[in-house]
Amino acid sequence: MQDKTPQTPESSKPPQPPPPKLFPTKHSFTPPDTLSQQDNPIYPIYYFFYGTLTSPTQVKRILDLPEEPPLRKAEVTGYAIAKWGDYPALINGNQEQVVTGSAYLVKSEEEARKLAHYETSAYEVADCLIFFKDGEEPDEADGKVFVYAGDAQALLEGRFDRKLWGKQMGGRLGL
After folding, report:
1. CATH architecture of the domain with residue range 45-169
2. CA-based angle 125:127:131, to the nearest 5?
3. Which end of the chain is more exposed for a tag (fewer CB within 10 A), N or C?
């Protein structure tokens, strides 16, 4: 028996609504590990810094800027800080957790590459919602952050992180 339902061509279907925003807001929360990754962000875009990059002098040096850049006091929610040797590492946390730091408006893909090179393969770029704490506008913005790429539980327990080690050694060991 044949189906008598009329077929609608794809082009005549009504437009679909855009996907929901996947960033935590002041009134809702999506865990950071479920945030979408944009392969090609549009510049300029804010990057949130929580460790050595909160120093304008360090950012100037890494990006080879003529002067220290303006950094904005900021925070992100849903993340926590753990220690990776002497360095702070951002890991996924509980929705109530807040990490304070600074934000910088990255102006180009070249600047983003320089920052990623500085952070090494120990960190991955993730989407985040940045809340500014300096009283200036905008008071929040979609942005990027460097998140620890290894096994966060191993980091918290202070044990060797085989996952990160394999990622860092990658092609050199044929992994």
Report:
1. Roll (3.10)
2. 120
3. N
